[in-house]
Amino acid sequence: MNDLLPLWIVLGVVLLVALATVGTVSVRRRARRDVVEPPPAAPSAPPTAPATGTPPPGTATVEAPPEVEEPSAAATAPAIERPEPVGGRLVRLRERLARSGSPLGARLLSVLSRDHLSEDDWDELEETLLLADVGAGPAGELIDALRTKVRVLGVRDAASVRELLRTELVALVDPSLDRSLATSPRTGEDGSPVPAVVLVVGVNGTGKTTTVGKLARVLVAEDRSVVLGAADTFRAAAADQLETWGSRVGVPTVRSDRDGADPAAVAFDAVRRGRTEGVDVVLVDTAGRLQNKQGLMDELGKIRRVITKEAPLSEVLLVLDATTGQNGLNQARVFGEVAGVTGIVLTKLDGTARGGIVVAVQRELGVPVKLVGLGEGPDDLAPFDPEQFVDGLLGD
Ligand code: GDP
Predict the structure, then answer these.
(1) 231 has which bridge partners?
(2) d(CA 64, CA 104)
């Protein structure tokens, strides 16, 4: 026992030192919390709380990371738009023409309202018509008709003069032309539906691709099913541009992955797909390179030939920029000769006060203006209506 005494003493000292140390640390801790730590906050959501749970109000500022979900097709695909109905667009045509300042109508009226019309006045009228791109032939006809009526009827008051001019301008634009678009599917020899095929031609920059996109929207607004064919394979961005137009309204685009691919092959694929899927209308955009007449004829001729192996062409629409005047008319003449044009789309009518091009191009090609482009907006394409157009020119 006596031998163990020093050991007991050592153990006792160690125990005492240990107890003293623990006590000091715990006192220090308590003291530090009293000075530095803020008062305990309201209870926060437990870190293990599920991420989807709603934390109590005024609590947890740090949220558990949200669960990562695979994006669903519905979340990534852009919402399909519902295009504007076509009916209301005719009103816009009048508004836009009226807003363009319409010097044609206003200037004609101001001359015609003079008390005694001299030879100079008639010359001024003719010049005004020529400056508005009406064309020499139609301008001469209009002047002759007005001269006769003014002399015979003797009308001089503003309202009568205006009515007279309106009647003559409407006659010049020719309301008797059939401006309907052939977009109804037919029945094939085997009884299967055959889509209407609309080929869209014209020089680059006139608004072809935009017009195809807008036209797809018009057709969708009329509950038609549509397939687009990106046969402008020479301009790299054209197929993308067309695809974007189509996807906005849920219309598929047939295209080639390769720049410079054979446009006829793309056109053929588009029509075949339209036929296989039983759609109502296939719209085919084409390249509009300004090449020599023979080259254009070869290219468009081939497109026409391969398309008609699958389905007859319902329409060949020539897109023409209304702001290009005589130059545009020259282009129209070439396309008219090689493409078998059935209708004209006059774009950028919002950007010109020279609406007379409507008259000139119809005369030049012997086919009606069927649609007009009134701006860069997606629904800025309207069916052409002679009376609304003339009212717009006269600033009604
Ligand atoms: P494409 O080369 O013939 O296919 O011509 P695009 O469709 O690419 O159009 C050329 C430019 O004309 C684009 O900036 C269009 O937004 C514009 N454009 C097309 N139609 C109209 C229109 O009716 N009015 C106006 N102001 N711009 C238009």
Answers:
(1) 286
(2) 69
CB 228 within 8 A of CB 212: yes
pLDDT per position as a tens digit, 53-99:
333 333 333 334 444 444 454 455 668 888 888 877 767 766 776 66
278-305 per-position pLDDT tens digit: 999 999 999 887 667 788 888 899 999 9
DSSP notation for 244-291? HHHHHTT--EE--SSTT--HHHHHHHHHHHHHHTT-SEEEEEE-----
Please state, in angstroms and rounded to a whole number, the distance separating the CA atoms of residues 330 and 353. Answer: 20
How many other C-beta atoms can be found within 10 angstroms of the C-beta atom of residue 170? 15
Closest residue CA from atom 9 of ligand 1? 207
Angle at 129 between CA 393 and CA 120, to 5 degrees: 125
The tokens for 197 are 């095929």
Rounded Cα gap, residues 149 and 122, in angstroms: 13
CA–CA gap between residue 47 and residue 64 (Å, rounded)? 8
32 CA to centre of ligand 1 in angstroms? 75
Q: Which two tokens stand for residue 157?
A: 């008051």
Domain spans, the chain? 186-341
Distance 232 CA to ligand 1 centre (A): 15
Q: Is the CB of 206 under 6 A from ligand 1?
A: yes
Higher pLDDT residue, 357 or 36?
357
Q: Give a three-class secondary structure readout of 234-246.
A: CCHHHHHHHHHHH
**Which one is the CATH code of 186-341: 3.40.1390.10, 1.10.150.120, 3.40.50.10700, 3.40.50.300?**
3.40.50.300
Any ligand 1 atom below 6 A from CB of 205: yes
Q: Answer whether 350 contacts ligand 1 (Cβ < 6 A).
A: yes
Prediction pTM value? 0.78
